[in-house]
Design goal:
TIM Barrel; 459 residues; 5-stranded antiparallel β-sheet; Urease, subunit C, domain 1; alpha/beta; 20% strand; binds zinc ion
Length: 459
């Protein structure tokens, strides 16, 4: 038995009637122009699953709860990232390992349903509600790992080092008590997680606000091979505070003081100068863009057109998980550039350098966004997903009979998935089918547990 796709995006472009066999979680054979065997599962257009480079899974539980103006005291100014963060801190105060597991499982199921097959979890909710470490200091991380196992998504776990409330080693605030480590306790946490089966482990110094230069060096030294992720230059006030502290902008400071290389993921990097943008591109690091969250929080727009034109590499992340959608993230990434530059198809073409597929002259924006986002796998310590023998069998198929892909072929299928609402039908992760007819197989149980938790939490 094998999978048979009407069309599939292989390493040298789209092919019709592609038969794929699976072997031990990997792709066995790939045969274009094949007739289906009687026992084959017949499916619509297919492509490799996408990496989600930046998630805080627990924030899925507060999606939609920070969209009302006026929940602030007079004189506090307008709603902003910083008032959203207060709402997030209040939600965090109520979560235990079971609650984190329930929310993360729903978030990961929804990621798979949308076409993400791997996720980088930027995990900073470490301790009990009073700030004391749990008896097992890795219990919250284990809740995340269990959610990934329940759903089948490939997990890169990025335990976060968080020690300060502001630049210059300022003391942490009471509401940050569940996040905090010193370098020794953090090393013990990493040690406890180092033997996890099937999980890629990295580290995440939270931001230049939350770590001192010495701590940054100590924490990055703990990940000699794994990915290193950091939030950076997300908000203008952060840039100004960094200038006051160091005389340099956040990205400028990081590139001058840390060995930033292709293992790094600079999350957001929204506020960068052309010189900083060019320097990130030269470093080979991934910029982890989270267009929906960045729009939701009013962060700003990253200069993606210029960065890709300089050979820069990006990944996309669902970050706050206020809405989970691989196609939706890519669509908003392009629309942000259109609204900024007053043009169309602005991210088309740039990633041809990554794909090796010869351009036919017409460049699809959807295909360009798709290939660019596949590069994000680098930030998860994984090879880019592809439909080729020996690759992990991470496969996404669109609904064959949906009107949004009627009479489409080739890259227009990706354009229609990203821009016209063609839905995902089926998803395999490491060779196991996890999503059918657009729904995760474990969704009923995951949903029931999630709804019961939210009713209790928000009562
Ligand atoms: Zn984040």
């Amino acid at each position: 038995m094998a999978l048979w796709f009407q069309q599939a995006l292989l390493t040298d472009g789209w092919h019709d009637h592609v038969r794929i066999t699976l072997e031990d979680g990997r792709i066995g054979t790939v045969t274009p122009g094949a007739a289906p065997d009687p026992g084959d599962e017949r499916l619509g257009p297919a492509f490799a699953g996408l990496p989600n480079v930046h998630s805080h899974a627990f924030q899925r539980g507060m999606a939609g709860l920070a969209e009302q103006a006026g929940a602030k005291k007079p004189g506090e100014g307008s709603d902003s990232f910083w008032t959203w963060r207060e709402a997030m801190y209040r939600f965090v105060d109520r979560l235990d390992p079971e609650g984190l597991h329930a929310i993360a499982a729903l978030a990961y199921a929804e990621m798979l349903e949308s076409g993400f097959t791997s996720v980088g979890e930027f995990h900073y909710l470490h301790h009990a509600p009073d700030g004391a470490p749990y008896a097992d200091p890795a219990v919250m991380a284990h809740a995340v790992v269990q959610a990934a196992r329940d759903t089948g998504i490939a997990l890169t776990l990025l335990p976060v080092f968080y020690a300060h409330s502001h630049f210059g080693g300022a003391a942490p605030s009471q509401s940050q008590r569940r996040f905090l480590h010193d370098p020794d306790s953090f090393a013990r946490l990493l040690d406890a997680l180092s033997t996890l089966d099937g999980v890629t482990l990295g580290v995440a110094p939270h931001s230049l606000r939350a770590v001192t230069p010495d701590e940054l060096a100590a924490v990055t030294a703990l990940a000699p091979d794994g990915p290193i992720h950091i939030h950076i230059a997300e908000q203008s006030p952060e840039v100004e505070a960094c200038l006051d502290w160091s005389g340099q902008r956040p990205v400028e400071w990081l590139l001058a003081h840390a060995p930033v290389d292709p293992r790094w993921c600079l999350v957001h990097a929204t506020h960068v100068t052309p010189a900083e943008c060019a320097a990130i591109a030269r470093s080979g690091a991934i910029v982890g863009l989270c267009p929906i969250t960045e729009a939701n929080l009013g962060d700003g727009v990253f200069p993606a057109r210029d960065f890709l034109a300089q050979g820069g590499r990006i990944g996309i992340g669902s970050d706050s998980n206020v809405e989970i959608g691989a196609a939706a993230e890519l669509r908003l990434l392009e629309y942000g550039q259109r609204l900024t530059h007053h043009g169309r198809n602005l991210l088309a073409g740039a990633p041809a350098q990554f794909t090796g597929i010869q351009s036919t002259g017409v460049q699809s924006t959807g295909a360009s966004l798709f290939h660019a986002a596949q590069q994000g796998a680098q930030a998860l310590g994984r090879p880019p997903a592809r439909l080729a023998p020996g690759a992990p069998a991470d496969i996404v198929a669109l609904r064959a009979d949906h009107p949004a892909i009627a009479a489409r072929s080739g890259d227009r299928l990706l354009d229609s998935w990203i821009f016209a609402g063609a839905p995902v039908d089926s998803v395999w992760c490491a060779g196991k089918k996890r999503v059918s007819a657009g729904l995760h197989h474990a969704r009923p149980a995951i949903e029931a547990r999630y709804v019961a938790l939210l009713k209790a939490l928000l009562a």
